[in-house]
Amino acid sequence: MRTPLAIFLAVSMLGLARSDAQDGFRPLFTGKDLSGWDGNPELWKIEDGVITGQTTGPEQLAHNQFLIWRGGALKNFELRAKIRVTGNNSGIQYRSQELPANGKWSVGGYQCDVHPSTANNAMVYDERGRGILVLNGQSVIIDAAGGKWLAAEHAPVPADISEWHEYTIIAQGNHLVHQIDGKMTIDLVDHDTKDRDLEGLLAFQLHKGPAMRVQIKDILLKELPDAPLVSLEKNPIPSDAQRIEKPAAPAQKAPQAEAPVKKPARKAEVGPAIGENKATPVSRIKVPAGFEADLLYSVPGGDQGSWVALCADDKGRIYASDQYGSLYRFKAPGVGEVLRPEDVEKVPVEIRAINGMTWAFGALYAGVNDYEKKSPSGLYRITDTNGDDQLDRVELLRDIKSGGDHGVHAVVPTPDGKALYLVCGNNAELTQVENTSPVPKLWGDDHLLPRMPDGRGHNRHVLAPGGIIYRVTPDGQKFEVFASGFRNIYGAAVNRDGELFTYDADMEYDFNT
What are 394-407's pLDDT values in tens digits? Predict the structure, then answer.
């Protein structure tokens, strides 16, 4: 599956390409007084030409208090402000609402946190609402039901909040970006219509608790034109996104033994509603002149999952694997025949999540990429040890740390018939390899031009040799790097001329011509 990128392309337009010019920005602070601002006069004042808020200790505030800008509600905008904080944490509220029931100068809504912890600094916190939404270093999508999905990660932006730093907030529709000193900390697309805010107040926070001091200057606002909301239909959650779960509450007492919970039956239809959850109609398949396509079998997803890999053994039988589950075998139907469900047998071996496989050297070699982490990912060999024509032995030849779609995938014989190629994407970690590798181990991040990582932050931390093709001996003992530096490789094949081809979601590579 292609990883959707469109929802993050706005980052480069909104936040990454900055200009020193202040065109379109207007100051919200005169540098002389608090005209246009409303807050507790006992807490806020002008000191040395900057806004200064200060508390004396835990007993002073019963709730967080805010200095509220009374210049109107903000909708689509870019805001810049220089801030420094000591003693506690602060934040910039935006698209927020006043909460008089909670107390005077109380506000709730989106907050760009100003926090001594790097993970929390310039994150998105929903004050008096959903709590932490996105941490520094994350790109997150919130679905319509409020579920949070980690779409990408990058190195968090560090900053000492006791020193002056410029915080930037860019809000367009349901797409939010935060920055520190021009470097993106978070990217959020919020589809939660019940709890998100598209318009509201701007305010600065004084946090209850320990004595603290916050200073603010150079507050600049640029109002942006209306923008269409990012839709979940046109920009779906990436297939390799991870669900962000709330941390479990600490146990108060030893739990009592509970009856095991019965796992719910698998749905009759699995996966997204694409392709009608059944085989593609023959009418939609294009074939070369002189060829015809026949539909032999529509895999029942509820029983046999999603088949992602096929190969034939030395007797002409076909093996098929479920992306998340079991391995199956059947005889290839004859011309004019179809495959019946009763012709498909489940192979009685303990293996799952095979994403690529081949029959070679009298065995089935399988590349396992277990998204659900129920078994080790890596290269396996499956054999028949007692001659009854049933595979019964599963050997893990090499454990390879892997995750997401860009993990362990295709296995194909080498053109000389003496070894195997194991194809791995850039979410599979480099395993131990031989010094005889044709690709030297010079994994430098050398570039003639500045590095151009994925625009949405995907796998920014994965440098060379991320995305590797190994040459492996049949016993699995010797791994050599045959080629490296690829992204989301999913499969490979060797043609009759001995050329190796691989494919990914973006392009095809030919390693021999």
Answer: 999 999 988 777 88
